[in-house]
Amino acid sequence: MGASASAVVAEHGEGFTNGVRFYSVQRSYTATTSIAVFIKGGIFRETAANSGIGALAMNVWAKGGKLLELLEGIGGHIDATSSLPDFHVILLSVPTDTLSSVLPEFKKQLLEPEITSKLFNKEKDLLLRAIEAMEDDPNSVAFDKFMETTYGSHPYALHPTTKSVSKLKLGDVERHLKGILTGADMVVAVSGRYSVAQLNEMKAIFKQVPAGVKCNVSLDNASIVEVARREGTDSRIQQAKVFLAYTAPSASSEDYVYAKIISDLLGGGMSSPYFSTLRKNKGYAYSVGMMYPSRLADSRMIGHIGLQVENIEDAIKTMQQLNAGFADKLKASELAAAKNHIVGERIMDMEANARSAWFAAFYESLGLGFDYSDAYIKAVRAAKIADIKRVGKNIFGEKHTIFILSPSKK
User: Fold this and answer.
1) What 3-state DSSP class applies to 314?
2) What stretch of H or E contains 120?
3) Which residues contact 342 (CB under 8 A, 6 or more apart)?
């Protein structure tokens, strides 16, 4: 995508005996190389008692050793995160002419990570401050409470707390990191320009990763089983925050692409029904939209709006009506516009090697295949109004969850 097919020299995927799945795409017209590493498990490796340990482990890993200092001197970048509930993610990007000098240090950090007590204490303190800031942010509080409401006891409802993180010790993080950096659940994608020797060196690094054991990722009990409504108050806010959610397909579902289109159609821009009806026509909201995260287990189609308390009930009713009836009024031109928007964004996003590698590893980890980005674009372009109607009807049924955070009465 973006460059002509002839500019892409080769695409290749293979599996190693330690469980690592490795994919490479040579993009010889670029001057950078990116390595994306996805490790399945994410929040499923945590409990309420140690929630946040994955974030802390990734933070100390990224800043341990000499890799970060080396990258700062050459304009490279590394990011290690647990921000996706299903995965831990490492993303390394460097100018290709520095790749050979970076790989030995990357290998050392991947296979023999160094975590000093000083680094651990510093990163733990920073994470605690970040959590305290989120706990003081009504929007973050509202979203966490919403996730608890819609997912109940499922791991997707977990979030770091000052209580859980404050109890973590260096040994806890070292053991957790040892469990994460294993091949059983690891997917690696390389995108950019590199030599055959450099590709073989990257493969050799990941072949040395310990095999480990697969994380038990349970896909059960993630759907909404009954209508639920929960409300809370906060003295710090001026407007209410409302979330309305329905069970939505997992990323492995045949309806995944159609659900993505539905999310864009309903809340993807200023011409969407959510924006035009709730903000433009009714004047209810400054912030309104819809989101549909890609998840291994059942996801959520989430409508959200910030508004005055007196408009809450009518806004919820309006959102429900828009959800239930939008497909019946859907015009071919509106569907075409949504499809063009989704495809255009993806093509532009994939121009960067970092995003090309990220999406390849992400989709393989979801079970869709390294090369799913091309299939995704084709499926979006092929979507029909009948597909949108069918999937919309399946999603927007009676079962839903609502969470409302309102200003405290004075």
Assistant:
1) helix
2) helix 117-135
3) 260, 261, 264, 380
